[in-house]
Amino acid sequence: MKLLSRLSALHPRAELLIPWLVNGSLPADAEPALREHIASCPQCREDYAQQVRVREAMRAEGPLVFAAESSYQKLLARIQSPEANREPRAAAPEPSPSRATAAVRRTSPAVRWLAAAVILQAFAIGLGAWMWPASRAGTDARYVTLTSAAPSYDSGPRARVLFSTSLSVGALRAVLRAAGAHIIDGPADGDVYTLGFAPPPPSRAALEKRIAALRANPAVLFAEPVQDSVR
Amino acid sequence: MISAEHDPRSASGGTTEERECALLARIAGRDSAAMKELYLLYHRRLARFLMRITTRYDLAEEIINDTFWVVWQHAGDFRGASRVSTWILGIAYRRGLKTLRYAGPPPADVDVEAEAATEEPTQRAELREWLDTALQRLPLEQRMVMELAYHLGHSCEEIAAIMQCPTNTVKTRMFHARRKLKTLLTTLAGPD
Q1: Does B32 touch chain A (CB under 8 A)?
Q2: Architecture of the domain defined by A99-138+153-229
Q3: How near does any CA of chain B get to the CA of A131, in Å?
Q4: Residues of A with CB below 8 A from B1's CB?
């Protein structure tokens, strides 16, 4: 009778501790009493056996394959961006929201302000592109055929950019036109593209403006001049 | 409490924890090679863990990168008050919850009866599939406790630190998760 009452007193506590015995994290001093109870309690014995099976199944490798390397390249582009290096560490206890996660924050008032700012920026970029002398921006309306000689980008400044994967071909075209840029290489590792600027090459100040315009576009995750190409 | 399973000796000597602490120290010094090593060490387990929250890989990937962005910015602040994995998973958990809050409701629940009637895999694979289905039907907090305890092997105290709640809450969540899971698995298994 005494044994029975002792077992029933242990049971509620044992029920709570079984998972931690199963995953091996139960404190060593609690283990002998729990094992003794499990041995004598059919309900806990069954529970323990089922939890062992559940844990084994949860630890089994699933069919999902994760592309760690390409994910890391995206992070690398982020931590190597000048924006990241400018950001004060103490002011960033939480990460700035990434674009994909920010995209789903449709109901936030902050995002509505952000959306307004982006629209304003897009308008400014469009206005800038319209006002930009066509010859300087490399967007003159020359008639180009497939057999026309390609312009040379050997001596001009270049930039490395990473576009959002959600960017459509049409939107990509608009981004390139606004910047007066052309894709001359890529995609390289991490889906980075190299952009060239049609002759005449932009001055350093003009290049900085174009890079700034690229960075201001939410679809451009990273934009950086190739240092040895800038004179 | 560190389980023996989570404290293996690495091939190069020292514990996994010592190795990860050393990586964090290098990351604090802006060593991107150390960053890559730690990232690749954690990517798979974080991806699996976060797929229990979002079920969308693109979001899980974003949360992983947000998490490691914090690691990059704050590696120097890590003082060893917890295991490195507890610290990183705590960041990932909070990022995951934030994302979930804005991403809207998860996909509609799977029809358990229909699933049970159409699946005929081997016993182990069958249990795994039933479990995946059943886990999706648990409340998020209970699902996370199960995942942290059984898949990632964290102790009750560590889970409390990751989820920022009392240990008794973790025990209670685990208790209810097991109860619901038992009922769901019985339903999924169907009549004998």
Answers
A1: yes
A2: 2-Layer Sandwich (3.30)
A3: 37
A4: 25-27
* Global ipTM: 0.74
| Per-run averaged pLDDT (10 residues), chain B, 192 residues | 40 75 95 95 91 83 93 92 94 89 53 39 68 88 94 94 94 93 78 50
All CATH 3.30.70 domain ranges in chain A, comma separated:
99-138+153-229
Question: What residues in B contact A58, CB-CB < 8 Å?
Answer: 128, 131, 146-147, 150-151
Three-class SS of chain A: CHHHHHHHHHHHHHHHHHHHHHCCCCCHHHHHHHHHHHHHCHHHHHHHHHHHHHHHHHHCCCCCCCCHHHHHHHHHHHHCCHHHHHCCHHHCCCCCCCHHHHHCCCCCHHHHHHHHHHHHHHHHHHHHHHHCCHHHHCCCCCCCCCCCCCCCCCCCCEEEEEECCCCCHHHHHHHHHHHCEEEEECCCHHHEEEEEECCCCCCHHHHHHHHHHHHHCCCEEEEEECHHHCC
- A to B CB pairs, distance under 8 Å: 137
Is B189 touching A (CB cutoff 8 A)? no
